[in-house]
Amino acid sequence: MAQPPIRIPLSQLARGQRATIECSALDFLPNEHRCLLEAMGMGEQCEVRVCRPGTPCIVQIDRTRLGLPHGIADQIMVTPIEPASP
Questions:
Q1: What Rg do the C-alpha atoms of the chain give, in angstroms?
Q2: Which of 19, 42, 67, 86 is 20 to 30 A from 13, alpha carbon to alpha carbon?
Q3: Per-domain residue ranges for the chain?
Q4: β pairing state of 77-80 and 18-21
Q5: What is residue 83's three-state secondary structure?
Q6: Pairing relation of β-strands 77-80 and 8-9?
């Protein structure tokens, strides 16, 4: 039986690490902020890569980079993507 995926705050990822945004990870945000992030590509089941951890936490989604305050990055739950096995 497979174990459920590990979910951690986006703010805990290291530089270069990739993860998938979890379902309803943005629900805590006010509607206008959530809509803005979704318009820039951050939504359910999208893949992000950390360009720079810290404040702001800079992530890349496709070709777009977003700078997120620590308070927001700390509340967005993600599932880390394991690197491919050689």
A1: 12
A2: 86
A3: 8-80
A4: antiparallel
A5: coil
A6: antiparallel
